[in-house]
Amino acid sequence: MKGRQLALTSVLLASGCAAIDPQPALDRVRAEVTDRAAVSVDWALEREGHEAVGRCVAAKLAGEMTADDAVAVALLKNPALRALYRELGVARSDLVAAGLPESPVFSAERRFRGRAAELDVAQEFMSVFLIPLRRRVAESEFDRERLRVTHELLDHTAEVRSAYFEVQAAQQLVEMRRSVVDAMDASLTAARALRAAGNTAPLDVAQAERGANQARLDHADAELEVAEARERVNVLLGLWGEETGWRIPPRLPEIPRDDIPVDELERRAVTDRLDLASQRAEVEALAQSLGVTRITSVLPELTLGGHSEREPEGNTSRGPSLSFPLSIFGRGRAARARANYLLLQAEDRYAASAIEIRSEVRTAFARMATARKKAAFYRRAVLPVQQTVTDQTQLLFNGMFVGVFQLLEAKQDQIDAGRDYIRALADYWLARTELEKVLGRRIPTGELQPNSVGEPKAAPTMHHH
């Protein structure tokens, strides 16, 4: 008999542990993140242990890391995201607890210098009757937590992509600044040669020196921007030590030929956004809890028990007991009103969030469209015109029709135009990533090619008269 009871207890404990297991919900979260972020992640590696994850991360960091690689590394390795996964276990435990009745209460009383004794056992039965309702509330709250975790993971993937593009933009600016330093050094060498030949004034040499010095300072600032941008990526991916030596393509990709149309974006965002779905789950949970409140406000407790008492004379009496509070003073009106207002408040917040999301979609799309137009204008008009101005000024300088100051000014204008183009390009990719974040889903792109602005060019030739 005892062996049977032990077996039954073991089965119950095992079933309880299985019920608390959050792995099915975690698998569902990861599948949705993989689909929405449009990235391939081998989630099975995490179950194999840190060594398997480390080998996968090392493989992705060995070559030039793509944006998709960066997202995959973050999802596998970032400890902050792993802590986020654990929240599903907490929510699952709360769900299991909501389906369990309260434990019975046992009490005993023994009176000294006599034979009197009392034994009582009581079980609060109202909680047992409300288990189905409470479980439905807990399931809605668990769905809300699952959606919230998924939304935060997707937000993190968008932050990874933004940081990735910022590193690329900073690297391209460094490359451009390096070519500027070479060009300014060449100009300074030419100005000194002209001065040695007596064909230019000391002021021209000083201006060339000032331009070369400023170019080196700007190059140092650009290198610092790269270091800071890389550190943000390291934090988002959870990298440290030798892992921080990763490499990525040095230039931003060109803007895709075709962009996603604005039609239906607002509707898709309201339909697909998981934080809004989480708020819908909150409304459902509060609606479910309102049904519980309507019962508990009238009868908050109902306790059934058994009583056994032995009198000093040796007589024993036994019998059932029943207790419940009397709702005399408020009759639960305040509790019901509070639950109803919480439901109305959640519905209003949901409507306000939907309006805000629609505005976020329009704003993000406008930023992306403007950045696309600016980058295209720089590429089509500003950069070619500035290149022509610089080339013509170079020819005039070689013919001694203008001084070195005019040549340096033309070169600086060309540098500024190239810098502004790179920033417009970065603004496009950052705005596109922000739009993806607002939509709650990755926007597909075709094959991308790196842009050519900032590529090192041969230093300009100068005739020494």
Folded structure, characterized:
By secondary structure, the protein is α+β, with helices and mostly antiparallel strands. The chain has two domains: 103-129 and 300-331; 131-297 and 333-439, Outer membrane efflux proteins (OEP), CATH 1.20.1600. It is 69% helix and 6% strand. The protein contains 13 helices and four strands. It has helices at 2-20, 23-37, 44-48, 50-62, 67-77, 79-98, 126-129, 131-196, 202-237, 265-272, 274-296, 333-398, 404-439, and strands spanning 105-110, 117-124, 303-310, 316-323. A four-stranded antiparallel beta sheet has the order 1-2-3-4. Helix 6 (79-98) runs antiparallel to helix 8. The longest helix has 66 residues, at 131-196. It is elongated, with a radius of gyration of 35 Å. The termini are far apart. The model is unreliable at 1-18 and 456-465 (pLDDT under 50).
List the helices and strands and how they pair.
Layout: H1 2-20, H2 23-37, H3 44-48, H4 50-62, H5 67-77, H6 79-98, E1 105-110, E2 117-124, H7 126-129, H8 131-196, H9 202-237, H10 265-272, H11 274-296, E3 303-310, E4 316-323, H12 333-398, H13 404-439
Antiparallel strand pairs: 1-2, 2-3, 3-4
Helix pairs in contact: 2-8, 4-5, 5-8, 6-8, 8-9, 8-11, 8-13, 10-12, 11-12, 12-13
Average pLDDT value?
Answer: 77
At the fold tier of CATH, the topology name of the largest domain is Outer membrane efflux proteins (OEP)
Task: Kindly report the name of the CATH homologous superfamily of the largest domain.
Answer: Outer membrane efflux proteins (OEP)
What structural class do you assign from the helix and strand content? alpha+beta
Number of helical runs?
13
Give the proportion of residues in helices.
55-70%
Helix and strand string, N-terminal first?
A: HHHHHHEEHHHHHEEHH
Unreliable residue runs:
1-18, 456-465
